[in-house]
Amino acid sequence: MRFSRPALVLLLVLWVVVVLYPDPNVLWHSIRNIQHPDVNAAAVASLAARLPNNPRLIEAVVDQRIVPYAYDWQVNGVPWYFPTTAQVLRAGRGDCESRAVVLASILKVKGIPYQLRMSFDHIWVDYPGKRPNAIENDSLVLAERKGGHFVFHWPKQFHLRQEISDQLAVYWTPMPDVRKGLLLGGLLIIPLLNSLAALAGGLGGSQAQLPPAAAPGRRRGLTVGPQRV
């Protein structure tokens, strides 16, 4: 069976989603969590009590001890997942989203003002006395949490080549080889099979339109009568 072009595109998109997120609920929960980040003071209350009140020191402890860095592929088996605070504490590691929700939760317990900010490939927590760095500064902000939701705007600084490199480093490089093979294999084989089906259908249609073979002794438009000897 040959698929139309829109159906083929839809099939390829579904293949990508199935390979990257075998359980679609993981993607759904991640989208819901990023819309409403789980800044959970209760989950970190006992932890916060043992930490100093300096937000920069708190961030250092979160990054180095509480949430050592790990890609989502390594923790959740998917390219991107936005966890809850409790999920991060259970896993004991995570990427920038994991660190951000834990740090924001601790700052909330201590009554320290904070704001979640995002670039194209990073999320971080801003607070009084925060020192800008190469990946956390005003020029890179794509969205910031205000009034209970993220407010988006185009960042002042954007370099396409660097952005592509960063995205590949986060999502493609740590991807398991088996998943890479499945993803690329499907993207190649599905269009190939569709093209072969179209070719087979075209050949079948051509054969069906061929005229019937002429009877012996008879040609199209010519009748052969008795011959003289």
Task: List the helices and strands in order.
Answer: HHHHHHHEEEEHH
**Oligomer class:** single chain
**What do we call the CATH topology of the domain at 5-158?**
C8orf32 fold
Q: Termini, distance in Å?
A: 59 Å
Q: Can you count the helices?
A: 9
Low-confidence stretches: none
The fraction of residues assigned to DSSP E strands is 5-15%
Q: From the 3D coordinates, which CATH architecture of the domain at 5-158 would you assign?
A: Roll
- The CATH class of the domain at 5-158 is Alpha Beta
- Biggest sheet overview: 4 strands, antiparallel
Protein traits:
229 residues, alpha+beta, 4 strands, 9 helices, elongated, C8orf32 fold, four-stranded antiparallel β-sheet, single chain
Q: What does this entry look like structurally?
A:
- The protein has 229 residues and is α+β, with helices and mostly antiparallel strands.
- It has a domain at 5-158: C8orf32 fold (Roll).
- Helices cover 53% and strands 7% of the residues.
- It contains nine helices and four strands.
- It has helices spanning 5-20, 24-35, 41-49, 55-66, 72-76, 85-91, 96-110, 160-172, 177-208; strands at 115-118, 123-126, 143-146, 149-152.
- It has a four-stranded antiparallel β-sheet, with helices on one face.
- The longest helix is centred in the last third of the chain and has 32 residues, at 177-208.
- The two termini are 59 Å apart.
- The mean pLDDT is 90.
Topology summary:
Elements (H helix, E strand, L loop, with lengths): L4 H16 L3 H12 L5 H9 L5 H12 L5 H5 L8 H7 L4 H15 L4 E4 L4 E4 L16 E4 L2 E4 L7 H13 L4 H32 L21
Antiparallel strand pairs: 1-2, 1-3, 3-4
